[in-house]
Amino acid sequence: xxxxxxxxxxxxxxxxxxxxxxxxxxxxxxxxxxxxxxxxxxxxxxxxxxxxxxxxxxxxxxxxxxxxxxxxxxxxxxxxxxxxxxxxxxxxxxxxxxxxxxxxxxxxxxxxxxxxxxxxxxxxxxxxxxxxxxxxxxxxxxxxxxxxxxxxxxxxxxxxxxxxxxxx
Length: 168
Fold this sequence. Notes:
mainly alpha; Hypothetical protein af1432; 68% helix; HD_domain
């Protein structure tokens, strides 16, 4: 798949979790990735990490969904296998490299990008809740996962900022 086609697909694919909770018109995968990347840029910078790399990791983390669509995270082991296969169809060595780093989650920048994936979802859940949609399940699940991640010392410099962002 050509990169420009993958980009277009990501702009047109709605995130399924929102639709499963009653939204007819939901945030796209591209919108989610963009928000995740901006959060990663800000938080990695505040933590003294390579902010541009963290943002790039967050930006590409859902690129395989251009091929396979947005799959619910409850099927995560299956999703991981399909993600790898789909990444092979995207013709970009750099995006593939960044995607694998994000998936492995070992570098500090990948940890920040993974945190920002959850954080963007949590923030969006609260936005939808303010509009009257019941996103309690998603909001609480991402809040718990973020709290677990924040126990890692790598997040010490930004814990307060993350908690502040979750209050918006």
